[in-house]
Amino acid sequence: MKFFSRITITGLLILFCNNAVSYNGNLDYVICDIKRPLAGLTKKSITANNYKLILDGMKYKLQCNAIRTYIDLSIESPDNYPELYKEVYLYARQIGLKIYANPLGTGRQGLSNQELVRLVVDYANHYRPEFLGPFNESGIKTNDTKEIAVMVRRLLQYRPALVGPDAQKVEIMMNKINGPSDLEDYFDIIGSHNAEQDEKSTVSAWRALSQEARRQIWASENPRSWTEKNSLGEEIGVASVVSPSVPVSGLVIYLAFPKNIGEDGNLTQKGQEIANGIGARE
């Protein structure tokens, strides 16, 4: 039985209702990242005792309309994901959050193209996230990236939006799609991380990436506070992707828990500043 089919009728009604939330800038989605804390890889983790408070805080206080969760490439069968994972996934659906899933960990993780595709596709066909990313700072060569994207699309039993390639920095992402590579044509959404050491994730860099990509772009892993400046005094915080002149349609708030939402479901100072900045409204 597909995991998706186990959602209650109430959950399905909520899922297919339009999320009538709008944001500043050009954002359609503000996505709360829960990958590492849900996998127990952070000092403060998501547990059976706190996940409802945390997800409620993400939706109703940080004003996210989606979450990012993980695909564990070491788990052979989707049925074998932890029970907590399944409970969190179902509750996110129940309160109307969309799901973006991509691999836990970076790199190829010792897998062939075929092995990576099988694990990603088996997961996706079982859990059915709306947004699917086969890569996570993978460092995989362009031709292999294309081959994997093609195989994933061919084997999926539904039509999620394919997000990627999720390079570590905006400049790296630009280099991947710059010129005649046509890599961007293999994805519905071009996602780029801007890691903590990415000093070039400025308004002009995001704008240039959008022009090169010729499709939707996401800041698909943003660890920063609302406003931060690089050594040249240029804005590289979350504010840089919420600028009206930047056509970024999706923002993934990295480690939304515990950096922006606490275990009690309340906003941290960083979370409050971001919530104010994105300006969510019904």
Features:
282 residues; alpha/beta; 8-stranded parallel beta barrel; 10 helices; 16% strand
Task: Please give the structural blueprint.
Layout: H1 9-16, E1 29-33, H2 35-38, H3 51-60, E2 66-71, H4 83-94, E3 98-103, H5 113-127, E4 131-132, H6 142-155, E5 161-167, H7 170-177, E6 189-193, H8 203-213, E7 216-222, E8 248-253, H9 256-259, H10 269-278
Parallel strand pairs: 1-2, 1-8, 2-3, 3-4, 4-5, 5-6, 6-7, 7-8
Helix pairs in contact: 1-4, 5-6, 7-8
Structure notes:
Helix content is 34%, strand content 16%. It has a single domain, classed as Glycosidases (TIM Barrel, Alpha-Beta Barrel). Helix 1 crosses helix 4. The protein is α/β, with parallel strands linked by helices. The chain has helices spanning 9-16, 35-38, 51-60, 83-94, 113-127, 142-155, 170-177, 203-213, 256-259, 269-278, and strands at 29-33, 66-71, 98-103, 131-132, 161-167, 189-193, 216-222, 248-253. Strand 3, helix 5 and strand 4 form a beta-alpha-beta unit.
Q: What is the CATH architecture assignment?
A: Alpha-Beta Barrel
Shape: globular
Average pLDDT, to the nearest integer? 92
Say how many strands there are: 8
Number of domains: 1
Taking the alpha carbons of the first and last residues, their distance comes to 36 Å
Q: Strand order within the widest sheet?
A: 1-2-3-4-5-6-7-8
Brief summary:
This protein is of the alpha/beta class and 282 residues long. The chain has helices at residues 9-16, 35-38, 51-60, 83-94, 113-127, 142-155, 170-177, 203-213, 256-259, 269-278; strands at 29-33, 66-71, 98-103, 131-132, 161-167, 189-193, 216-222, 248-253.
